[in-house]
Design brief:
It is a single chain. About 35% of the residues lie in helices and about 20% in strands. The protein has about 280 residues and is α/β, with parallel strands linked by helices. It has a single domain, classed as 3-Layer(aba) Sandwich (Rossmann fold), CATH 3.40.50.300. The strands form 2 sheets. A 6-stranded mixed β-sheet has the order 6-7-8-3-9-10, sandwiched between helices.
C-alpha cells in the first residue's frame, strides 16, 4: 500500500529531512511513526500527501508512483486517502453534518449517497446528536471525531493521521486511537499515524517505526504494552475510565457496513458465552 525506497529529501535551504529511508506498509497494517521534533516525521507525511517530492528515491502509494505523478492527478489521488490532522481543519461556518458531507460533495457523490453515508459515519463515531452543531459548539475531542468522520466517509483504503491527538486531553487521545484501532482491526483499513505520545504507542500493540535525524533507527512490532516505551499503566487507567468501545462505535445501522462485516456476529457470540457463564 505504501512503499518508500531509498528516499532522501533535502529542502531548498539545504536542510536534510530524510536520508535513505526505506519501509513498506502492507494492506491492513496499523503503523506508528515516532520521533522527536525535526526527526523527519512530517516530511514523510507531506511526501505521502504529495505536498513534497523527494530529492531521490521512489514512493509508491496504492500502486501510484508519486514521483512521476502529474500535477493534475494530485487532487484525485489525495481524495483517495483519509487524512486526520492535529488542528482538526474543520470549516468553522459549516455544521458537523456539512463538514463531513463536504468530503463527499467535492468528489461529486450524489445527494442520495451523501444523505445515507454521512448519518451512518456520524453514528459510527458517536456524533449523531451533534449533526447540527457548529464546530465552536462542541468539545475538542468531538471536533477530532468529526475530523475522523470526514476522513472515513469516503471509505478510504488508507488513513493518514498526523499527530491527531496533539490538541486533546490524554483520555480523549486514548479514545481516538482506540477508534482508529477498531477501524483497522474490523475494517482492514491501513493506518499510518505520526505521534510523539509514547504512552499511546506503549499501550497499543502495533508496529512502530522510529525515525531520528531523517533516518529509520528501528522498525519493530511491539510484543506487549510497555516493552517499547513506558506508560502502559497510565493508558490502561484511561481505558477503564472511558465508555465501552461498543458505545463509542455503533455498527447497528442498516446501512451497508464495509467497515465491519463480522462485528455483530462476534458480539452475539460473546453474549452467548457470557450467558452460559452466568449461574
Amino acid at each position: 500500500m505504501i512503499e518508500f525506497t531509498n528516499v532522501s529529501k533535502t529542502y531548498k535551504n539545504g536542510t536534510p529531512a530524510l536520508q535513505n529511508v526505506s519501509f513498506k506498509v502492507e494492506k491492513g497494517e496499523f503503523v506508528f511513526i515516532v520521533g522527536s521534533s525535526g526527526a523527519g516525521k512530517s516530511t514523510i507525511i507531506k511526501t505521502i500527501l504529495r505536498e513534497e517530492v523527494p530529492s531521490s528515491g521512489m514512493v509508491m502509494v496504492n500502486g501510484s508512483n508519486l514521483i512521476r505523478m502529474r500535477r493534475r492527478q494530485i487532487p484525485k489521488y489525495r481524495r483517495s486517502l483519509g487524512v486526520v490532522f492535529q488542528d482538526f481543519r474543520l470549516i468553522p461556518n459549516m455544521s458537523v453534518y456539512d463538514n463531513v458531507a463536504f468530503a463527499l460533495r467535492v468528489t461529486n457523490v450524489v445527494s442520495r449517497e451523501v444523505r445515507s453515508r454521512v448519518p451512518y459515519v456520524l453514528k459510527l463515531l458517536g456524533l449523531a446528536g451533534k449533526a447540527k452543531s457548529m464546530p465552536d459548539q462542541i468539545s475538542g475531542g468531538e471536533q477530532q471525531r468529526v475530523a475522523l468522520a470526514r476522513a472515513l466517509v469516503n471509505n478510504p483504503a488508507i488513513i493518514i493521521a498526523d499527530e491527531p491527538t496533539g490538541n486533546i486531553d490524554p483520555e480523549l487521545s486514548f479514545e481516538i486511537i482506540d477508534l482508529l484501532s477498531e477501524i483497522n482491526i474490523q475494517g482492514g483499513t491501513t493506518i499510518l499515524m505520526v505521534t510523539h505520545e509514547h504512552e499511546l504507542v506503549s499501550y497499543f500493540n502495533k508496529r512502530v517505526i522510529n525515525i531520528e535525524d531523517g533516518r529509520i533507527r528501528s522498525d519493530t512490532r511491539a510484543a506487549g504494552g510497555g516493552e517499547l516505551f513506558t506508560g502502559a499503566d497510565v493508558m490502561a487507567t484511561h481505558a477503564r475510565e472511558l465508555p465501552s468501545r461498543q458505545l463509542a462505535i455503533d455498527f447497528s445501522d442498516t446501512t451497508p457496513r464495509s467497515l465491519m462485516d463480522d462485528y455483530e456476529a462476534r458480539k452475539r457470540r460473546e453474549a452467548r458465552e457470557a450467558a452460559r457463564r452466568r449461574p
